Amino acid sequence: MLVGRKYRLALTPERRDQAEEYGSVCRTVWNIGLERRREYRRRGKLIGYVQQARELAESKADHPWLAAPSHVLRVTGRGGLGASRSAKRQPA
Hints:
- Helix content is 70%, strand content 0%.
- With 92 residues, the chain is mainly α.
- The chain has a domain at 47-81.
- The longest helix has 30 residues, at 13-42.
């Protein structure tokens, strides 16, 4: 039996600002990664998660605005792939 639960997260103002900043960075990383995958597909090639994660790690050294923790950014890069597969297995 599936049971639904709702939780409300109460953040301090500092943590709320940090969460918004991380969310903004993650959105940007997702959009850049999506565009990179589209570029590769247009050329008839594929770019995998490992290669994109490597590029992201290299980019963090050059771009200080990528201030979110690495594990948050890696999960963001993987999110679209893993979430869509698991969502298909779940009944609606």
